[in-house]
Amino acid sequence: MKLIKFFTLSSLLVSSLVANTSIDTLVLDFEKSRFSNNERVQIKDISVNMKKNLPQKDWYGYIIDLDLKFAGKDVKAKDVVFSNGELIAPELYDIKSGNPLKDLMTPKLTKAYYDKSKLIAGNVNAKDKIVIFSDPLCPFCMDYVPDVINYVKKHKDKIALYYYHFPLLRMHPASNALTRLMILAKNRGIKDVELKVYTKDWDKYFDSNEIDENKILKAFNSEFKTSITNDELKNSKLKLEVADDIKMGEEVLVQGTPTVFINGEKDKSKLKYENLGK
């Protein structure tokens, strides 16, 4: 009897594994078919980055890594889909709460995000860690980021705050130059660059749609009493540094600003930092 139970249980486990594997395959096949329909897209590789059991019975969330050529250019991106093996959807909502299930699909930060060079306040050895992806001309960020910095400064021994540049260039083109100027100022040894930039009144010099980098440079030099040149601002290394920050954000599905992670987990409320350091 025990032997029969053992084989029955084993069969159920195998069936479950096969079912789950087949769903993975169906999802990947669907993604390959979907992108193949675009003549400008050449698929190099499509794979599952993360799979998560959802609270809804028999449904799974997937983060898919896409390695493509689009119009002759190499593109690496991520896609989020949901499937139960019969249906697939780009988004699902909890019918009772109205919350999107995509909120459950943010990867947890790895240790790579706690790069000492990104620390802007607090103690690198602190147990509690905050990571912010932000745009210096995002209106909400301009209110929010200084509050977080000042809070961490009050609890500097117990919290580490890391900052990543994530300029939203379609919305705030002026952030392109301003972000690079922040890096240059920091490299020159100016302290609290992030706090100072976020609390300056840039509107008296330019608006967020400004694309004249000389105008932005002149404003920055005036406010910070620096003498940064146009050649320094155009240094390709600065663009690469910003691009690296953006890539780090995209790896964990950052799409808007500010995006905040508390101890590796995305904080949708953006208020959990107020419970740290106490």
TrEMBL record:
Residues 1-21 form the signal peptide. InterPro entries: Thiol:disulfide_interchange, Thioredoxin-like_fold, Thioredoxin-like_sf, Thioredoxin_domain. Gene3D superfamilies: Glutaredoxin (3.40.30.10). Keywords: Signal. SUPFAM superfamilies: Thioredoxin-like. The keyword Signal applies. Pfam families: Thioredoxin_4. Residues 66-243 form the Thioredoxin domain. This is Disulfide bond formation protein DsbA. The lineage of its organism: Bacteria, Pseudomonadati, Campylobacterota, Epsilonproteobacteria, Campylobacterales.
